[in-house]
Amino acid sequence: MHNMWSTYVRSSGEKPARVTRELLLRVLGYARPYWNHLGGMLLAILVSTGLSLVSPLIFRNLIDHVLPAKDMNGLLLLSLALLLIPAVNGAVGVVQRRLNATVGEGVIFDLRVALFSKLQHMSLRFFTNTKIGELMSRLNNDVVGAQNAISNTIVNIITNFIQTAAILAVMLSLQWQLTIVSVLIMPLFIIAARRLGGRLREIAQHGMETNALMNAHMNETLNIGGALLVKLFGRTREETERFRQRASDVRDVGVERAVVGTAFFVIIGLVSAVGTALVYGLGGYFVIQGTFTIGAIVAFGSYLGQLYAALQGLAGAPVDFSTSMVSFERVFEIIDLPLDIVEKPDALELKDVRGELEFVDVSFNYSIDESKLLSQVKRFGKMEDVGSVMSASPAKGKSGNKTADPSAKDDEEDELVATPTQAREVALSGISFHAMPGQLIALVGPSGAGKTTATYLIPRLYDPSSGIIRIDGRDLRDVTLDSLSAQIGMVTQENYLFHDTIRTNLTYARSDASQAEIEAAARAANIHEFVMGLSGGYDTVVGERGYRLSGGEKQRIALARVILKNPRILVLDEATSSLDSESESLIQEALKRVMAGRTSIVIAHRLSTILSADQILVMDRGRIVERGTHDDLLAQGGLYNQLYDLLSKSTQFKREAQA
Q1: What topology does CATH give the domain 428-496+551-658?
Q2: Strand partners, 501
Q3: Of 21, 208, 332, 635, which has the fewest Cβ atoms less than 10 A away?
Q4: Is the pLDDT of residue 151 over 60?
C-alpha cells in the first residue's frame, strides 16, 4: 500500500519523461562502474525471493502432514526452519542493503562531482541568469532522484518482477483456478486508484505549495536582513499574523490529506479483502470437495498477500521509472550545457608577464542564448517556486533573472551623471586603448556607461562579442584560464567574504602563504592592526558574507587578499563614497601601495586617482568618448569637463583639491 501512496505523491510534482534508448544507455553508463555490486544485488534478490517462497510451503507441510501424524521430529525441524529462514533472509537483506547503498551513494558522488565541475567552468553570464535555488535543487534533489533510479527504482522493478513470476509459478502449481481468481481482482485496484488517485495528487500538490510559501516566509523574515527590516518598521505583529495564516493553511491541507489518504488505504484494503474472500471461499469449496488441503489453502493465502504487494509495485513502476528519468534529464541538462568561455586545447601558459594590456576595437553585448540557460522547472514544495513571498504570488518566467546588464549597478556610488539615460542594446562598442606595464588607467563616466563591463572582460568573466584583448601581445583566448587568472587581481565594489576566518579569506588568494606573508599583505592594506585587535586575531570568523565587518574593513581585507596574490595586472573599483572619512583615508593609502609597480585599471571615483592616472578614459553609453590626462581633458571642454564641474561642487572634492 505504501508503494502506491508514494507513487501518487511523487507523480504529482513530476512530469514523466519520454524514456528513449539514448537516455537509458546514458543512465546505465553511470551504473557501469558498479556492475559487480549490481550483480551481487541481483543474486541477493533471487535468494531472498526463494526464501520467501519456502515459508508457506513449510506451513502447508506442517498442517497437512506433521500435525496430523503427530511427528515430533518433523515439528522440531520445521520450527527450526521457520526460525532459520528469517534469520538468513535478514542477513541477505543486510548484504543487499550495503550493496544498494554503495551503488546509490556512488552514483550521487559521481553526479555531484560532474555537476559541480561543470558549474565551475560556466561563465558569469550563466550565473547572472540562473537562480541559485535552481542550482541547489539540481545538485541535491535531482541528483538524489537520479540515484533512486539506479539503486531503488530499477532494483524494485526487478525485485517485483522476479517475485511476481516466482509466486505465480508456485500458485499455479498449487491450484490454477484460484490463481486466475487472484489475478482477475487487479482491475479493482486500478479503478480504486484512479478514483482517489487524482484527488490525492491535487491535495499533495496544494500541500507542497502551502509548505513552500510558509518556508519562504520564514526564510525571508528570519534571516539577518529580514529580521532587521521587520524590527525597524515595527511589523512584528503583522508578520506573526501572516505566518499564522500560512501555517493554518498547511495544517488544514495536512488534515485533508490524512483523511483522504486513510480513505484511499481503506478502499484498497477492501479491494484486497474482496480478493482474499473470493480465494478463501473458492479454496474452502475445494477443501470440502476434497481436491484441496487445508495446508495448501493457508499457503495459498500467504502467497496471495505477497502477489498483491508485488503486482502493486509493478503497477506503479512506469510512473516511478519515468519520474526518476526526469531527474536524470535535469542533471544531464547542466552537463550538456555549452560553455561560453572555452579554453583552447593548445592554449599557452602566461609566464613572465610584464603587464602590457591592449583593447582592440572591443564590443560586447549581454544578449542571452536560451540554449545556454537552464529550463524552467516547476518544483512543488520548494522555496524557489515562490515568486513574491509577501504577496504570495507564484514564480514566473525563466529560471534565470534576465538582467540585460549585471553591471548596470556597477557605478551606483558614482556621483558622475552626464546623460539622461544609459539605456542601449550594446554594452560596449569599439573600445580601444593601450596600457603599458606599470601604468595607471582611470575609467570615468556616468553610471551605467560600461566601465565595470569593460573590466569584466580582462579576466575573461565574459568574452568580447567582437575585437581582441591582449596581454603582452597575446590574445586572451590563446592562453590558459588558470595562468590568466594568476596574473590578474580584481577588487570589486561589492567584496565577497566567505563565512570563515579572516585567515581563510586571505589565503584564498594563495593557499601556501605563510603567516609572515599574510601579515605583510594585511599591513599593506592597513588592516593588520584592526585584525590583531580582535579577540581571535586572524582566526576570527567574519560571519555570513562578512556581515560582522564594516564596509571599509571588508574592502581592506579584499585589498590584502589581492596583495597576497601579487598579480601583474590590477583591476579596481575604488568606490568609497559610502565609507566614513577614516576608512576612506586608510583605503586610499592602501591603494597606493597595491598599485605600485603594477598595471592598474581603475574605475575612478576620487580625484586623487584621476590626477595620478597616466591616461584617463571617459566612457559614455558604452564608448570611449574622450581620453588623455586631466589637463588635456579639461582643455577639450567636453564631457570630462562637465563631470569635473559636478565634482568640484562637492565638499569632498574641495578638501582633496586643497590638500
Answers
A1: Rossmann fold (3.40.50)
A2: 541
A3: 21
A4: yes
